[in-house]
Amino acid sequence: SSPLPARSRVVVIGAGQAGLSAAWFLRRAGLAPGEGYVVLDHNDAPGGAWQHRWPSLTLSTVNRVHDLPGMALADAVDDTGGRVRAADAVPRYFAAYESRFDLPVHRPVGVRLVRYADGRGGPPDFVVETDAGEVRAHGIINATGTWERPFRPYYPGRDDFSGEQLHTADYRTPEAFAGRHVVVVGGGISAVQLLVEIAAVTTTTWVTRREPVWTEEEFTPERGRAAVALVEERVRQGLPPGSVVSVTGLPLTEPMRQARRAGILHRRPMFERIVPDGVQWSDGTLQRAEVILWCTGFRTALDHLAPLRLRGPGGGIVLDGAIPTRVAGHRRLHLLGYGPSASTIGANRGGRVAVRELLATLGIH
Ligand code: FAD
């Protein structure tokens, strides 16, 4: 891509759903590409984290990828039949989107850290240090997602396991596990989807910390709003946002019903330790296993913001604003994809609000 400008009024970090939504609203507000705003992204190609999703995840098995503002996914991808891989479709859509709106996305550009410049009166600029040079900015919209921060909890014996351990982010196809016993850890949607796939080719054990809560209720907009409101409240208080499933429960779809009848979704409590040839519970019961698949989620990729010291005593970051995206005490910094904006629809809405509030703070509108 073209060389990075030395300064840009607003720097957007990340070109996934959240970063592109923000870019679209910045463009609509009349900011010039380059000196007005730029988007920096770590990946080699468009698509955000979607380009790394496992091959069996299709547009019909994802929850739903909402259209970005101004252009529908269906304009870029024909998915009659619903069999198109999400890892192909969404990158194609984002590529078409970036080019339709001429968005100034620079890639691959990894942001190493963001700090404040030495201020001489007035609010200090941000300095965005990247592996392609520095950019100074008046405002930052951070939209770096979670994919690059897979989370794996610690259990004793972890390093002694003689089999293979991997995370959701490493998963490709179930065939890789044929002939090996797989322990799937985790109570979220990814865990149950991968468990059902893997159980078709080999034996499995499912373990979760809490008893999974299945829900027959359809996922209505009202339930979605109620779930988001809970996460929003946590973020306004500076608590870690928490997972969506902890609020909504697991949807009992037809494939899940079948899997339950087949005994695949028989859940066991968390094991106590990992031993070289399997996992062991506190009563001494052992399950031999050759693979442990950690479907234990992701954390937000915010390490590059460490110099700004955003985390408060609650363990999270206090956000405010109409949809909380603005960092309390750092009015020119917004986080998208954190808490209530951590969904494709939330990213769209968060992008609109973040741009409106940031430009007002910068006195641009
Ligand atoms: P991403 O798509 O992760 O984009 C972040 C971008 O930032 C990446 O391109 C990355 O390279 C870049 N980046 C990261 N760090 C840096 C750095 N330091 N410097 C430069 N660039 C950086 N949500 C839904 O609404 N519907 C679904 O169906 C759905 N399915 C999902 C399925 C899976 C398996 C997972 C894991 C999540 C799913 N989600 C879904 C949640 C979904 O991922 C998000 O809502 C949304 O896609 C995230 O977009 P984003 O822009 O925040 O992040």
UniProtKB/TrEMBL annotation:
One of its GO terms (molecular function) is flavin adenine dinucleotide binding. The keyword Zinc does not apply. InterPro entries: Auxin_biosynth/cation_transpt (IPR050982), FAD/NAD-bd_sf (IPR036188). Keywords: Oxidoreductase. Pfam families: Pyr_redox_3 (PF13738). Coiled coil: none annotated. This is Cation diffusion facilitator CzcD-associated flavoprotein CzcO.
